[in-house]
Amino acid sequence: MFKKLFLLLFLPASFVLASGFSIYEQGSRATAMGGAFIARADDPSAVFYNPAGISQLSGWQISVGTTAIQPKFSFTGPSTMDSKLYTEAQKNVFFPTHLYLSYSVKPWLTAGFGFYSPFGLATEWGTKEHPWVGRLLATRTELQTFYYNPVIAAKVTDNLSVAAGVSLVQANVEMEKDVFFTPRNLFGHSKLKANTTGLGVNLGLRYTLFKRLHLGAVYRSSVTLNFDDGEARFTFPITTDPIINNEVSSLFPAKTKAKSKLVLPATFGLGIAYEATTNLSFEFDYVYMGWHTYDRLKVTFADPVGGEKETVSPRNYSDSFSLRFGLEYRLDQHFTLRAGYLWDYHAVPSAYVEPTLPENDRHNYTIGLGYRLKSWSVDVAYQILLQDDRNIKQSVNDFDGKYTGLANLYGLTVGYAF
Amino acid sequence: MKILKIFLVLILFSFFIAGCKLEEPSIKKSNPVQLNQPAQELFMSFVALGNSLTAGYQSAALTAKYQEYSFVKQIAKQAGLSDDQFTQPLLGWPGLGAYTEKGAGILQFNGFDESGNPKIDPVPYAGTGFDPFNPFLSAEIAGLGRPYNNLGIPKIVLADVDSAISAAQSYSGSGLIDVVLRNPAFGNTTALQQALSLQPKLVSLWIGNNDVLGYATSGGTYPPAPTDKNTFAYLYNSLLQKLLNAGAKVVLANIPDVTNVPFFTTVPYMVEVQGNNIPLWIQATDGVRQATAEDLILLTAKSYIGDDSGTYGPAGVPLGLDKSAPLPSPFVLDKQEKAIARQAVADFNAIISDLAANSGGKVALVDINALLVDASDEDGYPLAGVTLTTKFLSGGIFSLDGVHPTNLGYALIANEFITSLNETFGTNLPLIDLLQFLEEQQPLKLDLRKLAKLPDMLTLPEIFGGKINL
After folding, report:
1. What band does A19 get if pLDDT is binned at 50, 70 and 90?
2. What is the three-state SS of chain B?
3. Domain chopping of chain A, boundaries
4. pLDDT category of residue A286 using cuts at 50, 70 and 90
5. Domain A2-172+198-222+265-291+306-417, CATH 2.40.160.60 — does that match?
6. Which of B:320-349 have CB within 8 Å of A?
7. Which of A133, A367, B154, B185 minimizes the number of CB atoms within 10 Å of its CB?
8. Residues 78-107 of chain A whose Cβ lies under 8 A from any Cβ of chain B
9. Is it true that domain B37-264+336-450 has CATH number 3.40.50.1110?
């Protein structure tokens, strides 16, 4: 059929992932120390950072908190249009929350549970009334993940503990953009929505040397998310011409099932911590993320959209890593000061950077304060993420320009030990 | 100690309140470009010579609605020239073109039929008030007292530019020569003479396409061969020298390879008959045989494949599906003919680029062939979320006749010209903002009152109860 000619190259095709879409801020104490916590791992957030660490915790412990993430991104360009045209992304704040429990079953055995969101993203450009210049690439993208993660940690010797856990992962994704129906010069809008669950495992190891030097290693597996039951909606303006209206409604189903697959990357981390004095300690971590899993995005539709049942777009992300450095200084029995620095290496190759995730290498500076009173603890953290400006010159979408970005992160975690 | 603590807490919380802000640039949009000296000088008098591609021909006709988007008009607009400073022979709706003799003008896309084939029909003159014998948009345009700046004439070949004064006295026989040149009122002058009389500072010359395209679009039948390359070189050189001797700077464009044009690439060489893919039978240079992937079936063949009326073969035998009823040669550019056409394009382009290179900086060259080769590969031509390709109907670059560009296709071409002008002559013309261009394009609406009564020119017939799969 002739409709097959309508290779729908203007279909929604942008899940967004990047190093920046991983959210490593899952506990305000660790956040305040640049996220360098794999070797120390001595509060309930260890379930996320290094589950082997919970074997240090006694009795029942609970901690709960959130990190308010306030990103600010802008795009200048595209150079094909106006190399000085400045667009600021809509301001969104999102609140990935975390909750941890640990219970020391026996002196050598500790059970724990974590709820956290290590991957997530929200970007929005332009509005319905004032569409932005990249509307055909992306208007709004949102991804949320929730990990439900029980773990078991065991002390093998006084110096060595190991841990393992499984994660049930729940994911929601929404992607919106405008589409352009070339034969009629008509702009429409597409919206993809899907949710699913997946499974993953995590492993941890912690080893102490000479009582003051701690080593940690952690592995979190990749998680395959099969979005089998998604929904795609296409809306076009009603024209005064019934033939065009029929044509558009037959080519673009108002609603159809959509399917896709996304593999969240595996993470591997190593840390070393040193207690210089009883009040001062340092940690240095290296965290590696296997973003190569995101090589392409394929969306399959139940009903043909513009004659096509699937769209494939290359993503070709590459693995990335971060270097994390943190220190903690105890002022007195109540107050603790923390600071840190971390550097994120980008995951998106230059040619594939697009507005859904304007990503690049990032410098992060963190600072924080802990307060402890009896069984209670309150930790606050502030992190400033400064992203290197990224000049894109050979984008596969021919959407070249300059991306700039930064983010403010505010963390608050409250803990209680029974 | 206590003071220190309070101090630190205050510092920390001041971060919370203030946060860090993104540094905004002071300029959030470019100012309009002021044309520099070289640009102002060149565009004092800008004249275009060429064929249908220069005229702004689209969807098988020349009509004002689309002439406004001829690539030379788009360049003139970027150079700030008004309609009076860059004049065109604007024609009324639905225009003159391939269907004029059948009493119709431009092709329109009228949606899909029940089996999903696009319905593409020319708009009949009846009821539009259009007079093919006085086709101009207005009396003012018809009676303009000097030659048009856009002297592009559909269908003409290279030899016509410096010799044709009317359809009757031309190599191509193009009826539009009379419309554009308006002889004898203009003293039986050629396109070149009219161009030179405007004392051009800059001439756009994109010619030679029909010296091979005529051969190719007729399936290697009429004319039976592309223009001889030595003749082509001689004519092209003498034309160029005359322009340069008159003191003009010239921008040339080369010729696209036919294999990148949807007219040749849309209809597959196999049809699906009752679930099987069967190669078409064709009348090829080397005799009647089944087509292979090397042969190109022309877009014009579509409405005739499977025809069993007996007009083109034995009655009762579907055309192209049996050895006794091969697709006639005019519908097929077979392997040998394709090689001849491609060789001619390569020869012509080598001649054009040699002449441009040896012109001492007075000639700019635009590699349109490279643009289309680029757009015809798998990735197409990406444009901020839309991917343009050279596919028929859906690709966005070619109009409904499969040979001539759309408004957007002409804008891409104009940008290639502007880039070349800026690089060669040091002008600072702004590129056409293609995204803005998309936004400004009106949705292509139909006028139901003017829907064609003519038979579908491009609808595929059903064969043996099966359908042709494209």
Report:
1. low
2. CHHHHHHHHHHHHHHHHHCCCCCCCCCCCCCCCCCCHHHHHHCCCEEEEECHHHHCCECCEECHHHHCCCHHHHHHHHCCCCCCCCCCCCECCCCEECCHHHCEEEEEEEEECCCCCEEEEEEECCCCCCCCCCCECCHHHHCCCCCCCEEECCCCCHHHHCCCCCCCCCCCCCCHHHHHHCCCCCCCCCHHHHHHHCCCCEEEEECCCHHHHHHHHCCCCCCCCCCCHHHHHHHHHHHHHHHHHCCCEEEEECCCCHHHCHHHHCECCEEEECCEEEECEEEECCEEEECCCCCEECHHHCCCCCCCCCCCCCCCCCCCCCCCCCECHHHEECHHHHHHHHHHHHHHHHHHHHHHHCCCCCEEEECHHHHHHHHHCCCCEEECCEEEECCCCCCECECCCCCCECHHHHHHHHHHHHHHHHHHHCCCCCCCCHHHHHHHCCCCCCCHHHCCCCCCCCCCCCECCECCCC
3. 2-172+198-222+265-291+306-417
4. very high
5. yes
6. none
7. B185
8. 78, 80-86, 88
9. yes
